[in-house]
Request: fold
Amino acid sequence: MSEAQERAWSELAPAFVLPVPRDTAATSVARGAELDPVAVWGRTAPLVVEIGSGQGHAIVHGASSRPDDDFLAVEVFRAGLARTMLDAERAALRNLRLVEANAPEVLERLLPAGSVDELWVFFPDPWHKKKHTKRRLVQPEFVPHAGRAVRPGGMLRLATDWEDYARQMRDVLDAAPEFERAFEDDWAPRFDGRVLTAFERKGERAGRAIRDLVYRRAGA
Reply:
């Protein structure tokens, strides 16, 4: 991390980063480590969780524009979390918290069942080489974890600039009984709550179409 990021981690982490009981790995989540959203945020409010929040552009924008909602950024890369905290502090955000942990374990163990109103998965690592695609986050085994965390009627929002990954996401979620489409035609309209980032502009300049998907948790 840069000097500023190191300083952000030491000075800002106590206010923003949630302590997580660990299993064996450094970014694991121990069983029985369930958080209490009311205790964390000090209120009862809709909860938005972003998986793979990167440098935090989307979730800082979301938390800034929706002060009545609570936000949780989930990321394993400490430099990205540090950058997120710097921007969150600059924006004086009090409705944003961060977790340094593996996403599936956060969904399976840390978040209470049915506690998430919106789950965001924006531009996850595409692992675009064929030999690496099995490492992609959105696979059939991801769905039960997401379905456990998202409340009935809650939303799962996804975006990617890799066409084959977009199709994989759509195939996986179309086949999942936990979720149902909340869009018509082939792709969802661009989510207007998703800030346009330099990463997305880079994908567009490379000629890659940006694909959005949105699914509703079944059972509402």
The mean pLDDT is 93.
